[in-house]
Amino acid sequence: MLRCLCTLIFFIPVLLIAAELKPFTTDGCSAFPEGTLQQKTLWHNCCVQHDIKYWKGGTYDERIAADRDLEQCVSKAGEPHIAKLMLAGVRVGGSPYWPASYRWGYGWPYFRAYGALNDEEQSAVKMELNQLKRSVSPKVGPMRGNSEP
Length: 149
Known about the structure:
This protein is an all-alpha fold. It has a domain of about 90 residues. It is built from five helices and no strands. The chain is globular. About 20% of the residues are buried. The C terminus is likely disordered.
């Protein structure tokens, strides 16, 4: 009985924390180059889109789709061999069980693993992505009146 009570006392705070989504961060292509020597950021945007999906997390099938999307994006950038190499890397290194900053579901506290996001979690993701879009949208400069040359 005491063991059961201690277990509950430990896990209740973990369950309460589970809904807290960290702000989106990206490290681009993690430890992998973001382009060629000639085009240094050729597939950088592919990696950022992949990071958004990894930050969000979700089911095992969603992870497979995210990894395939990365492969297709890098392939469309003209580097199909690099795309295959990157796919292999994210399949091995992106597990939600690795204690890494780039693991599947890294926006959530560790131990979330695979699983569909509930309505509250989906809402938190949507709010964070909307806030992110607003922060990177081009800012409108000051209006210029007729008095300026």
